[in-house]
């Protein structure tokens, strides 16, 4: 079976999930999307209002900023990255997902990681960082390459943090430059970015 077929089977299971209380308030489950063969998996926190409405990850204001940064660094969803979240259903009022909710949903993300088998994982923000180390602070992890389960992992700010505090954009851009260089080194030497030489 191809990765796309395996993901489709998993997706059908997740679409009817009721393993935590977030199922009661969701409109649509947000499974994730992108190219599972692109080599890069981006992990966010959980759906917001626009994602809950459309069933697609990162389509609201944060998502538009994320796409803009990805594009500037030479990446897009069709070719290079798959985007998923820690929880697949929207937490009411965009609160952080609770420990119980994260734990209920995590097996799906682990299965996505197993199927996609990305070479590089990018953790977007503090909630995503909990995937690899619940006690590590974003401040310590950001911009650092780490190894987790034989994959290399980079942590950066969540795009919503960049919207709240535009001063962080410059540092975030350095993280995406690191991603570009690593991608060019280990995945595809042909990648081009208009803004990175
Ligand atoms: N924020 C997230 O963490 N994930 C999304 O899919 C959208 C906004
Ligand atoms: Fe299931 Fe995850 Fe949605 Fe909770 S957030 S209902 S565990 S899919």
In total, how many beta strands?
A: 6
The profile of the biggest β sheet is: 6 strands, mixed
Shape: globular
Question: What would CATH call the class?
Answer: Alpha Beta
Computed Rg: 16 Å
Account of the 3D structure:
Helix 1 (3-15) packs antiparallel against helix 4. The protein has eight helices and six strands; from the N terminus they run αββααβαβααββαα. The chain has a six-stranded mixed sheet with strand order 1-3-2-4-6-5, sandwiched between helices. It is α/β, with parallel strands linked by helices. Bound molecules: uracil (URA) and iron/sulfur cluster. Iron/sulfur cluster is lined by residues 14, 17-20, 22-23, 29, 87-89, 101, 104-105. Residues 30, 44-48, 51, 57-58, 62-63, 85 line the site of uracil.
Fold blueprint:
Layout: H1 3-15, E1 33-34, E2 40-44, H2 49-54, H3 61-72, E3 81-85, H4 99-116, E4 120-124, H5 126-129, H6 138-141, E5 145-148, E6 151-156, H7 159-164, H8 169-186
Parallel strand pairs: 2-3, 2-4, 4-6
Antiparallel strand pairs: 1-3, 5-6
Bound molecules: uracil and iron/sulfur cluster.
Residues 14, 17-20, 22-23, 29, 87-89, 101, 104-105 line the site of iron/sulfur cluster.
Output the keywords.
binds uracil; six-stranded mixed β-sheet; Uracil-DNA Glycosylase, subunit E; 8 helices; globular; binds iron/sulfur cluster; 197 residues; alpha/beta; single chain
């Amino acid at each position: 079976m191809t990765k796309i077929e395996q993901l489709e089977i998993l997706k059908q299971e997740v679409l009817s999930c009721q393993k935590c209380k977030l199922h009661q308030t969701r409109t649509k489950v947000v499974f994730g999307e992108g190219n599972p063969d692109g080599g890069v998996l981006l992990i966010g926190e959980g759906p917001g209002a626009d994602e809950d409405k459309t069933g697609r990850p990162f389509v609201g204001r944060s998502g538009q900023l994320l796409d803009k940064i990805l594009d500037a660094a030479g990446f897009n969803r069709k070719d290079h990255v798959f985007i998923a979240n820690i929880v697949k259903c929207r937490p009411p009022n965009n609160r952080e997902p609770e420990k119980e909710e994260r734990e209920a949903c995590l097996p799906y993300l682990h299965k996505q990681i197993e199927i996609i088998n990305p070479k590089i994982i990018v953790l977007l923000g503090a909630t995503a960082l909990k995937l690899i180390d619940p006690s590590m602070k974003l401040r310590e992890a950001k911009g650092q390459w780490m190894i987790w389960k034989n994959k290399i992992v980079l942590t950066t700010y969540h795009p919503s943090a960049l919207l709240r505090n535009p001063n962080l954009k410059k540092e975030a851009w350095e993280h995406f430059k690191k991603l570009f260089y690593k991608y060019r080194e280990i995945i595809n030497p042909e990648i081009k970015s208009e803004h990175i030489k």
